[in-house]
Amino acid sequence: MSHFPWLRFAGAAITFTGLGYMLMKATVPTEEELYNRMAPDIRKKVDEAKALRLAREAEMKQQVAAQVPSTNVVDPDSLKPIWADPSTKNLK
Fold first, then answer.
1. Signal peptide position in this chain (predicted)?
2. I need a labelling partner for 14 at 20 to 30 A (CA). Which of 1, 21, 22, 86 fits?
3. For the chain, what is the domain count?
């Protein structure tokens, strides 16, 4: 039976993982730092894409709010996904 040094192996693995994490935290910029380093034209494109994404999300929230009844009682059938509807299983 071999005597593998499990304790040393686990210690080395934890040490290397910790060093890798610390190196990553020290070298990878945050989103704010990355945004501040961008060229103005790229920053403008990023802002436009963000505004478009937020507009789409707001539109989707409006659609969901219009489809969900405003009463406190929620119909359990409305929460089921369409593919779980038994009436559509035999459509071929």
1. none
2. 1
3. 1
